[in-house]
Amino acid sequence: MSTVNSKEEVIKLLDDAYSLFKSLPTLIELPNKPRVLFVGDTHGADDVTRKVFSEFSDKVDLIIFIGDYVDRGVNGVENLTLILSRALQEKDKVIVLRGNHESPLTNEYYGFKNEVSKKLGEDIYENFVRTFSIMPLAAVVNGYFCVHGGIARGLHSLDQVNAIQRPDVNPDNEIAFEMLWNDPREELDGFVPNIRGEGTYFYGKDVTLKFIEDNNLLGIIRAHEVADGFRFEMDNKVITVFSSRYHGMRAGALLLNNNNLETIFL
């Protein structure tokens, strides 16, 4: 399927996506599915996204995109509009979660705001911000907590995620912000300030395994950090999937196939 091209089409798509995201909870709790594909950061790699849809749409029951569709790569508009179009067409099959780059905090510095201005005009960028602000933050499927960054200080129960109010532009809610920005470090305990900057944290193995146990989860599937496709840590209970070649490594996707996790290079 082709992406939308005209300014008017993009505005309508963003409005429709806003309505879809508004109808969904902040934490999407999904029924168990035999085959689920997880896609990490794509950062404008619309070729990777097209491959996901062309090669896996008919082979899986669910596709979950775990954020970061824009910035860094040059085709953020094309990548995002393709993903949103498919999410609107296949509401029960394509789940789109927010990443830390779906925010004006990053778009000014990593290219997306400028890309939108050049391709569609300066005034339309606020339409993107509006849609980003309402995106769901996490999903649970087959016992896995799917979230762009990970757990946050003060986050103990999955019920707290649904209590987070949207829209939230930056986001300003501390738990929401940390869910998008935090990173795991199994050699640490507790929460330790992250090199990403103020308000971001590394979460250690102790608090992570406690969160997983307390919420009856099998693990956490997240994105956010550059990897050669994947990284498994914390007794394989935290899996990072990275789906962009922007940083010079391979793009990966993670397939949950009848409760067995399989790694795929795209």
Structure explained in plain terms:
Helix content is 33%, strand content 21%. It is built from nine helices and 14 strands. It has helices at 7-23, 46-56, 76-89, 104-110, 112-120, 125-132, 158-162, 174-181, 205-214, and strands spanning 27-29, 35-39, 62-65, 94-96, 138-141, 144-147, 183-185, 191-193, 201-204, 219-222, 230-233, 238-241, 252-257, 260-265. The strands form three sheets. Strands 1-5-6-10-12-11 form a six-stranded mixed beta sheet. Helix 3 links the parallel strand 3 (62-65) and strand 4 (94-96). Helix 1 (7-23) packs parallel to helix 6 (125-132). The chain is globular. The model has no long low-confidence stretch (mean pLDDT 96).
Task: Annotate the secondary structure layout.
Elements: H1 7-23, E1 27-29, E2 35-39, H2 46-56, E3 62-65, H3 76-89, E4 94-96, H4 104-110, H5 112-120, H6 125-132, E5 138-141, E6 144-147, H7 158-162, H8 174-181, E7 183-185, E8 191-193, E9 201-204, H9 205-214, E10 219-222, E11 230-233, E12 238-241, E13 252-257, E14 260-265
Parallel strand pairs: 1-5, 2-3, 3-4, 6-10, 7-9, 10-12
Antiparallel strand pairs: 2-13, 5-6, 8-9, 11-12, 13-14
